[in-house]
Write a structure and sequence with these properties.
- This protein has a four-stranded antiparallel beta sheet.
- With 448 residues, it is an alpha+beta fold.
- The chain folds into two domains: 283 residues, Outer membrane efflux proteins (OEP) (Up-down Bundle), CATH 1.20.1600.10; 154 residues, Outer membrane efflux proteins (OEP), CATH 1.20.1600.10.
- A hairpin with a 2-residue loop joins strand 1 and strand 2.
Length: 448
């Protein structure tokens, strides 16, 4: 009894050390994300913290224009889906803390009376089996907590990259609206001139219809890109958690960088957070499998002091031990072990699949990144300057009355469309660059 009391006392003392932290592991998440992004990650839980974050977001929205980094910062502070994800840290840490504490002792009492005879049985039992398995359970929950922190960090980075994608789409759509209006104005002027020339008898109806067709196509294109702009702005506003009318975006996309990032795809996948989280999950399942095998026969063992009075109330109590455990008569635990083994092997194969897919995704993303860089550079250095030079030369010929205004209008439309194509190509490059960065930290299959 003294040994049992000492064992329980030590266990209670140790379980009292298992307490909740102040940040629920957010500090570790911040350290991980700071290796990939420069923006601050915050988890406001009190009313004061939430008010402070709201003021920060309002301040960022009041800036003259919002670049991609600013948009990412607003999303990380204000996206409610991410805030909800942070609470998984609290749940996981609570599970870890709970695993470090013993279940409460159980008090049983039986009272019976017949005439002057009494039967009183009292027992205070402790779950000794929980004490034996507690270190193993703590280790399992500790690894699960680490896995949760990895998953939350990956969610932060995914939101950051999704915001960059949405930002580049929105800015590119705004630029395309501006250039489509220029094409529309040029086509409108050409169609009006054609109408007047037909009235003067200098043109036939076929030539006028051709110019009217150019204008109709330009008007349709302007309507389509305007609709695309609205969708792009709304997609960005959802990620930032603000209304679209609060967005003050840059007027143009960032310039193409002078150099391209060199990368060794075969080595980069080892740093991916989703792969690290999957490996942690596999290790946790391995430990759970070991615990299942250990407890396959007996998983309930309760022991504690008891006393019994049998007879009159003046009789002395008899003291002893109360022991209860599960008898493996019908269930020998084979099904539990088989289930745990199947879940473990499932995780092993999923980890192997993720490693293979990670290498492929990085190779594909890097190839797209390099290709879009070369294409955009060709537009910038070759096609756009050439179209501009042609327009300038034809402007001189028009001034000398060597070509018609319709030829000049056509060249102007072609030059503007080449710029529009460059904008689209530049957008594709920044999307490819963002997708590549995402594949280096986690799965990029949803990055479009």
């Amino acid at each position: 009894m003294k040994q049992l009391t000492l064992l329980v006392s030590v266990s209670l003392a140790l379980s009292g050390c298992a307490t909740l932290s102040k940040d629920a592991g957010l500090g570790d998440v911040q350290k991980t994300t700071q290796q990939h992004i420069i923006q601050e990650v915050a988890w406001p839980r009190t009313a004061a913290e939430q008010s402070e974050i709201a003021a920060r977001v309002s301040e960022l929205l009041q800036q003259p224009s919002m670049d991609a980094d600013c948009a990412v910062q607003i999303a990380l502070l204000n996206n409610k889906g991410l805030q909800a994800k942070f609470y998984e840290l609290g749940v996981s840490e609570a599970d870890l803390t709970q695993a470090g504490r013993l279940p409460n002792p159980k008090f049983d009492m039986r009272y019976a009376k017949s005439g002057g005879e009494f039967t009183i049985e009292q027992a205070l039992t402790f779950n000794i089996f929980a004490l034996i398995t507690r270190p193993k359970m703590q280790e399992i929950e500790r690894q699960h907590f680490e896995q949760t922190k990895q998953a939350v960090a990956l969610e932060v980075l995914r939101l950051a990259h999704q915001t960059r994608l949405a930002y580049f789409n929105a800015v590119a759509a705004t630029e395309q609206v501006r250039y489509s209006e220029q094409v529309k104005e040029s086509a409108d002027a050409s169609a009006e001139l054609a109408r007047r020339m037909v009235q003067a008898g200098n043109w036939n109806k076929l030539e006028r219809a051709r110019e009217q067709g150019f204008y109709a196509d330009a008007e349709l294109e302007a309507a389509q890109v305007t609709s695309k702009q609205v969708s792009a702005n709304e997609a960005l506003s959802r990620l930032l958690g603000v209304s679209a009318d609060q967005l003050k975006l840059e007027q143009r996309l960032p310039d193409l960088p002078d150099t391209i990032t060199e990368l060794e795809p075969q080595d980069a996948f080892e740093q991916r957070l989703d792969l690290q989280a999957m490996r942690l999950e596999t290790e946790t399942l391995a430990k759970q499998l070991g615990l299942t095998k250990t407890t396959r026969f007996i998983n309930v063992l309760e022991l504690g002091p008891s006393r019994v009075l049998d007879g009159s109330r003046s009789n002395d109590y008899k003291y002893g031990l109360d022991l209860s455990f599960e008898l493996p008569l019908f269930d020998w635990g084979e099904a539990r072990v088989a289930r745990a083994e199947a879940i473990y092997m499932q995780a092993v194969n999923r980890t192997a699949e993720l490693a293979i897919n990670a290498q492929s995704e990085i190779r594909e993303a890097y190839s797209r990144y390099r290709a879009t860089y070369d294409i955009t550079k060709h537009y910038r250095d070759e096609i756009v300057p050439l179209r501009k030079k042609i327009l300038q030369e034809n402007q001189l010929r028009y001034n000398g009355m060597l070509i018609s205004p319709f030829e000049l209008f056509a060249d102007a439309r072609t030059q503007v469309m080449s710029v529009n194509s460059y904008i689209e190509s530049l957008r594709e490059f920044w999307l490819a660059e963002t997708a590549l960065q995402m594949t280096l930290t986690g799965s990029g299959k949803d990055m479009k």
